[in-house]
Specification:
By secondary structure, the chain is of the alpha+beta class. It has helices at 21-34, 64-82, 88-91, and strands spanning 4-9, 14-20, 36-42, 49-59, 100-112, 122-125. Strands 1, 2, 3, 4, 5 and 6 form a 6-stranded antiparallel beta sheet that branches. A hairpin with a 6-residue loop joins strand 3 (36-42) and strand 4 (49-59). The radius of gyration is 15 Å and the shape is globular.
């Protein structure tokens, strides 16, 4: 398991996100081998959560744009956590410095993962 940043879903059902190399080497290698992934996207304040499952179509080389996206989203994540009582210094270590790369997943299935009665319910499929 690893934490991704800068999640974006386009109109064609492609989910892109950024992984930090320092925190995701095993995950990246598994995706390279299987070409499959499941990605949970959660709002840390409301706990609303969706899981996207599908085929990995691209694992980009590390680049500055991916790192900048991650840094922006990490700052937003930390800010959101402070609105629900976390101390900024205690959550500042959620991400490591260094290389980052964008991953693209062609979504095949979407599941509700929000805690409660609907958790696990299929929201959509191909």
């Amino acid at each position: 398991m690893s934490r991704g940043w800068g999640v974006d879903l386009d109109a064609e059902g492609r989910l892109s996100f950024v992984l930090l190399d320092a925190q995701s080497e095993m995950l990246r290698k598994a995706m390279e081998q299987t070409r499959r992934a499941a990605v949970n996207v959660t709002n840390p304040v409301t706990l609303e959560s969706l899981q996207f499952k599908g085929d990995v179509t691209d694992i980009a080389e590390p680049d500055r744009g991916a790192r900048e996206t991650a840094d922006r989203r990490i700052a937003q994540f930390i800010e959101a956590l402070t609105t629900i009582g976390f101390v900024q210094g205690s959550v500042a270590g959620v991400a490591h410095p260094g290389a980052a790369r964008r991953i693209v997943l062609q979504v095949r299935e979407i599941f509700d993962q929000t805690p409660g009665q609907g958790a696990g319910r299929r929201v959509s499929e191909e």
